[in-house]
Design brief:
With 125 residues, the protein is α+β, with helices and mostly antiparallel strands. Helix 3 packs across helix 4. It contains 5 helices and 6 strands. The chain is 38% helix and 14% strand.
């Protein structure tokens, strides 16, 4: 068993020891709407109560505008669980969320856009 630098408890054979749905207390529906391209950013406001280490990791990742997809990739969690964590932080006003501007966005199936996202994820991971 090893403790990685990102704080996740991993077992070499079993993988992550804390199952993703335990992180969200079994919840699979966020209280706010997010899609994978929604931009989130920390506001600098900390929740009054301690929510747990996964929430701290989310806030650390969101020091600048970042997409929901990027946060999920860095956390190595399913997008639905990441959205629950993000919506909790929006409720506590610790994060702001902004839908991507429809006028600026190209088609979500645009090959150039998808290649740029893939390149960015590979670079950051």
């Amino acid at each position: 068993m090893s403790d990685t630098e990102d704080g996740s408890w991993l077992d070499d054979e079993a993988g992550r020891l804390v199952r993703p749905y335990a992180i969200s207390n079994g919840r699979t529906r966020p209280s706010a709407h997010f899609d994978l391209l929604t931009l989130v950013m920390a506001t600098g406001i900390r929740p009054q109560t301690y929510l747990g280490p996964d929430y701290d990791r989310v806030l650390a990742l969101c020091d600048g505008p970042v997409t929901v997809a990027e946060v999920a990739a860095h956390l190595r969690l399913p997008a639905v669980i990441t959205k629950v964590l993000l919506s909790d932080l929006v409720t506590y006003q610790a994060l702001t969320a902004r839908a991507p501007n429809a006028l600026e966005a190209t088609s979500p199936t645009d090959r150039n856009l998808l290649e740029a996202v893939l390149h960015g994820l590979r670079k950051r991971l």
